[in-house]
Amino acid sequence: MVTLIHINRYWEDLSVLQVNRETPRAHYIPYADAGSAKSGKRARSPFYQTLNGSWKFQYHRSVRDVEEAFYEESANVSAWDELIVPSCWQVNGYDQLQYTNINYPFPCDPPYVPDNNPAGLYVREFNLSGYWDKKDKYIVFEGVNSCFYLWVNGKFAGYSQGSRVPAEFNVSSLLREGKNRIAVMVLKWCDGSYLEDQDAWRYSGIFRDVYLLARDSVHVRDVFNKQTFEDGFRKVTLLTELETTGQVTIRAELKDAEGNLVGTDEADVDGKGTLRFEVTDPVLWNAEKPNLYQLYVHSGNEVLQFPVGFRQITITNGVFQINGQAVKLKGVNRHDSHPELGQTIPLNHMIKDLVLMKKHNINTIRTSHYPNDSRFMELCDEYGFYVIDEADLECHGMGTASEEWDDTNIHLLSQKPEWKASFLDRAIRMVERDKNHPSIVMWSLGNESGYDVNHIAMAEWIKSRDASIPVHYEGAASSQANPDVESLDMVSRMYASVQEIEAYAKDEKHKKPLFLCEYSHAMGNGPGDLKDYWDAIYKYPKLMGGCVWEWCDHGIKTVSKEGTPFFAYGGDFGDKPNDGNFCIDGLITPDRKPHTGLLELKKVIAPIRIEAQDLRKGTIKVTNLYDFIDLSHLGLHWKVEMDRQIVQQGQLSSIEAAPHGHQMVTIPYDLPETSAGTYMLTLSCWLKEQTNWAEAGYEITFEQFELPVEQVTESGDSLRQMFPLQAYQEGDILTIEGFDFCHSFDLYSGTIQKMSKQGVNMLQGPAQLTIWRAPTDNDMHVKERWLNAGYDRTAMKIYRCDWTKIDETTVEIKSDFSLGSDSRFIALHGEAIWRVNGTGEISVKLQVKVGEKQVYLPRFGLQLTMPQGMEEVEYLGFGPHESYIDKRQSVKKGRYLMTVDEMFEDYIMPQENGSRYGTAWAIVSNEQGMGIKFSSAEDFSLNVAHFTPEDLTRAAHNYELAKRKETIVHLDYKMSGVGSNSCGPQLLEPYRLDEKEFAFELRLMPVFKEDE
Known about the structure:
Elements: E1 18-19, H1 34-39, E2 48-50, E3 53-60, E4 81-85, E5 99-100, E6 119-128, E7 136-141, E8 144-145, E9 147-152, E10 155-161, E11 167-170, E12 178-187, E13 200-201, E14 205-206, E15 210-215, E16 220-230, E17 235-255, E18 261-280, E19 293-299, E20 302-308, E21 313-316, E22 319-322, E23 325-326, E24 329-333, H2 347-359, E25 364-366, H3 374-383, E26 386-390, H4 412-415, H5 420-434, E27 440-444, H6 453-465, E28 471-472, E29 491-494, H7 498-506, E30 514-519, H8 530-539, E31 543-548, E32 556-559, E33 565-568, H9 596-604, E34 608-614, E35 619-624, E36 634-642, E37 645-652, E38 662-666, E39 674-675, E40 679-687, E41 699-706, E42 710-711, E43 726-730, E44 733-737, E45 741-746, E46 751-757, E47 760-761, E48 768-770, H10 782-789, E49 795-807, E50 810-820, E51 828-837, E52 842-850, E53 859-866, E54 872-879, E55 892-899, E56 916-925, E57 930-945, H11 949-954, E58 967-975, E59 997-1008
Parallel strand pairs: 24-25, 24-31, 25-26, 26-27, 27-28, 29-30, 30-31, 39-42
Antiparallel strand pairs: 1-10, 2-15, 3-4, 3-6, 5-13, 6-12, 7-11, 7-15, 8-14, 9-10, 9-12, 16-17, 17-18, 17-19, 19-20, 21-22, 22-23, 32-33, 34-35, 35-38, 36-37, 36-40, 40-41, 43-44, 44-45, 45-46, 46-47, 48-53, 49-50, 50-51, 51-52, 52-59, 53-58, 54-55, 54-56, 56-57, 57-58, 57-59
C-alpha cells in the first residue's frame, strides 16, 4: 500500500494554519444584477456554482491507511461509497458517534494527536462552463471539521484548519472548461482540535456548504461598512471601506427597506478606497424592529449586496445600550444541532429555530461556541436578534487532563506564545466574515479556555479592527493567571446565583455591566429559577441580561434494539469517554418541540408587565418592557371566569404605552358582592397583525388575578346526606360500611387500603406516605444526599394504631408513624388522624416532624394506586402544563379536564414530571366520572401518572418506561422546586421542603361526578 509519506503533517504543526488559503473577508455572493442580489438566492447568480451534492467517499480509521494516489485524476473511485455533502460522517455510519463535554477524546499532548487519526476522502467530478473562462475562480468551504487538504485536477491546492469559519482558495490556474475533479482529505483531529473542545457531539467532515465563485479578474475583495452618528441619531454617515485586487471603478447605491434610493457614491479604487453615504433621520435597526437598508456595490460585471442596519452600541455608566437605550438581553445559547444531520443545519431548520425564539420572546442568541453558518447571521439581521458571535475556541479539556481539576492547566494554551497565531486566527476569521451584520452586538473570545496573553491579543486585534462592538469573554472572570481585563467591555459570568449578581450590581466599585453568558441550566425538568433572575436583572441597570443554557436537546434520532425510536445521548453508541445525558439540556426537544421550561422563559421575559392597581375598579397598570417600540401592535383581551364559566369578556381598543413607559387602563367588568366560586381575571396580549414569525392573534403574554369577591360556602360536599356507619374489625382489617360505600383500613400498616362506591372499586392497593420523587436532572447533586439519607427506600413504621366510633356517622383512626430506611436514622415522625363520615368521605390530618439533621425532602404526601380505567383527571388549579413552586409563571389558574397521559411530560431521560402546583381539588375517575375527589383546606401539589417514581428513577431513556395499567396519584403537601443545579446554583432556600414541622390535611371523597 502506498502511504501519504510525502504529504506534510500540517495537522500537528502549529506554524502552519493554512496553505494557499485566501485572506479572510466579509461574507457575500457576487451577482450579475441588483434584483438577483436582493433575492439572496445564490443559484440566481451566474458567478456561483454549488458543489453540494453526492460525492465519492472513502473512510479510513487512520490516515496511515490512505492510498496516496486517490487525489490523482486517473484514480478509480467508482467502488467508493456515495456521501451527500454537506454532512457529518458520524450520522452516516462512519467513525464513532461520541458526546463528551469537557474531556478531550484523545490523550492530552498538545499539539499532537493520535497517530490513528481517522481520515475521510472525498472526490467529486463537476463541469465548468466556458462562460467562466476569463474569470478568476475560487472554491469556498464554509465549514470542515477539523482540517483538510485540497487537490484540484490532481494538483495540490491548499490546506486549512479551523472548523467553523470559511476557507477560500483561488483555484483559477487549476480549473478548466468542461470536466474537473476535486479531491479532499479531511482529518478528524489536528492541533486545532485542542481549541475545539466544545460541549457537543464530536462530528467530522465537510459539514457546511461548498461552492465555486467566479470573479472578475479585478474585483472588490472585501467590504467593511462602518457607521458614525451625529446630532444624537438625527444623522448617520456610512463609510464603506473597500479592498480590491486592482484598479476598478466602483459605483454603489444605498436603498431603504422599501427600495427607495437614499444615496449613491462612486470611486476609482486601486487596492483600498472608501465610499461615503450620509443619511438624515435614519430608521434605526434593533431586534424589535429590524429595519434594514440595502447597499449595492457595482464593480465591473458584479453586484455585491449587504444589509445595513444603522445601530450604535455603547456602554455608559455601566449600562449596556443600543441606540442610546438601555437594553436587556433575553437570550439563549444555541449550538448547531440537528437530530438526524448532526451539525449540518438546513436553512429551513435555522428559520424554525428563529421563529420559535421570536414566539417565546427571546431577543438574543449566543452562538455557542463558534460562529454559526453565514446564512444564520443573515437571518438574525432580518428577523431581529442580538447576537453574541463567539470564536471557535474552547480548550476545556486542559483543565481535566490531570488526575484532578487543575486551575492552572486551563490557562496553558492561552499563555504559550506558540499558540498565539492559532488563537488570533480564530478571532480574525470570525470578525472579518461577520463584521457587516447589524445583529452582532458583541464579539466573544470563545468559551472555557482559561485566560491570558493570547486572549488579550485577540481582544486587542478586534478593537483595532472594529472598536464599535464590545468584546466579551467569561473566562477572564475567575482567572488568576492574568488579571488584565482592560480589553474586555463587560464582566461575564456563568451560573452565578441571584445573590451574587445582586451583590455585583450593588457594589459601586464595579463599573462594567454584568452579562450572564450562561445561566438557568435548562436540563430536563427545569429551569426553576428564571423569575428570581429576572426580578434582579430588571431591578439593577448594570445587569444587562443573559443567555439560558441552552436552546435545544442534542439528542440523536435512533432506534432501540426492539425497534422503538428514541433520542440517544452520550454512551448510547458505546462511546468512551462520554458525559451521558448532559447534552439533553435544552429548552426544546431535538425535533423542536418546546419543553415547559421554554414556556416558563417566554412568560418571565415577556415584553409587557401587567400589574393590578385596584381590582374592584378594574384598574390595571400596563408597563412596556420593549426597548424601542410602543404597544400599539398588540391587542388586550380580557375575560372574567367563575369556575370555568366565562362571566364577562371584552377587548380594549388600544394600548399604546411608550418603550419603558406605562399606562393605566380600566377593565369594564362588574363584580358581585359574594360568590360560591372564585372569580378570576385573565388578560391576554396578542399580535394584531401577522408577522414573519407569528400569525395575527398570537399570544405574547398573559396575566391573571383573583378578583375581590367574597366567597360563600355552598359546597356540594356539605349538602350530602349523612348516613349511619357500620364498622367492624377482623384481624388487622377495619371495614367501614355506609349507605352506598365500603372502605377498609389496614390497622397494621396504618393506612387506607380499599375504597368503593356503589360497588365500584376506587383503590388498587393500600395508600402510602412517601417522600421520594424521581430525581430531575437538576437534582443531580442533591440526589446523592437524598440517596445517602435513604429517601428512595423508606418504609413506614407504625408505633400505634387505634380506632373508635365517635358517633353513628363518624369513625376515627389514629396512628403514630415514622418513615425511615435501612442503616439510617429515622427521616421523620408523625401522627395521622383518619376520619370516615357517613357520606363516605375520608379525611386525614397529618402532623409531621422531620429529623433536625435531615437534608431537605424531595416531597411529602400521599400516594394512591387507582385501578385500570381511571384515566380522566379534572382539577381546579394551574395548567394546562406542569408547574412547580419555582416554575409556575407560565401556567394559568383554571378548571382543567385531561387524561392521565396528557398530565405526563415526556423527558428523554425519565424524571419527575407532570406535577401541578397549587391544586385546590382534583377528581381522578373513569370516563363515566366514577372516581375519587381529592381536596384540602390549603392548595396541594398533584401528580397523576401511569408510572411510579421508582419506574422513572430506574429508566435511563423514555423508551425503557413500561406504562402501568393502574393510575398512580400523588397528593403532596409540598414538593421541592426544580431549580437549575445540574450546572447552576443550588436550589434557592424558599423552594426547598426544608420545614422541620408541618401539618397537612386531605379529604378523599368517592364520587360519581356526573351526578354531582
